Each structure stands twice: as C-alpha cells, then as structure tokens.
Q: What sequence folds into this?
C-alpha cells in the first residue's frame, strides 16, 4: 500500500533552500542522517497532463489566497513573481535562495488534497 509521496528539488544551495522551506511550510521535519533534512508537506495531490514533448515533473504549492500569501512572503523579504490569472487559477512563483523557483497557486478547480 502506498502511504505517501516524496518530492525532490535540486538546488545550487540545498542547505539554504532546506532552511527556507522549513520556515515557509512550518511542517514536521526529520533528519534522515548527517543533517539531511526532510520536510513534511501539507496534504498533496497529483495530476497527469498530456505532452507532445519530453515528459517532465513539476511541484506547486497550493494556497487559499495567493495574493495575500504573496504579500506576506514579500513582507518577509521573499522574492515572489507577479500573480497571473491562468483561468484554472491564480499563479505565481516563490524565489528560492538556491536560485530556483517554486510554483504556488490558488486553484479555481476542485482539489483532491485533504479530501
């Protein structure tokens, strides 16, 4: 029986991104050994989209109010892209200390997480 999912982000500064995500998410963390921090995620869901190109994978955080969450993050000094209306939801990206971006959106579609 599958009991969860494990997402991996690759980073130019993994230590900084781990500390950032630990603070951002405020969820349980565990040390998998040698300081290798694993951060708990909020309830999650997975979707499979068709592609004509090479298969790829993406990770997005979901929030109830993307404008308010983005404003809170900006007030804390976090870089956040402008919010755009995609029809299916309001989308932005959080700038990670290691140089990457992590998508965040407010869905307008039904969500399976927490059901």
A:
């Amino acid at each position: 029986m599958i009991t969860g999912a494990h997402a991996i982000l690759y980073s130019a500064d993994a230590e900084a991104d781990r500390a950032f995500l630990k603070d951002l998410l405020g969820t349980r963390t565990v040390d998998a050994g040698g300081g290798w921090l694993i951060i708990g995620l909020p309830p999650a869901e997975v979707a499979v989209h068709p592609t004509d190109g090479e298969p790829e994978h993406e990770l997005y955080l979901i929030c109830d109010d993307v404008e308010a969450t983005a404003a809170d993050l900006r007030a804390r000094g976090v870089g956040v892209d402008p919010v755009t209306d995609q029809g299916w939801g309001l989308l932005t990206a959080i700038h990670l200390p290691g140089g990457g971006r992590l998508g965040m959106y407010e869905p307008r579609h039904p969500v399976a997480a927490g059901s």
Notes: Residues 14-107 form a domain with the 2,3-Dihydroxybiphenyl 1,2-Dioxygenase; domain 1 fold (CATH 3.10.180.10). The radius of gyration is 15 Å. The helical segments are 14-25, 66-75.
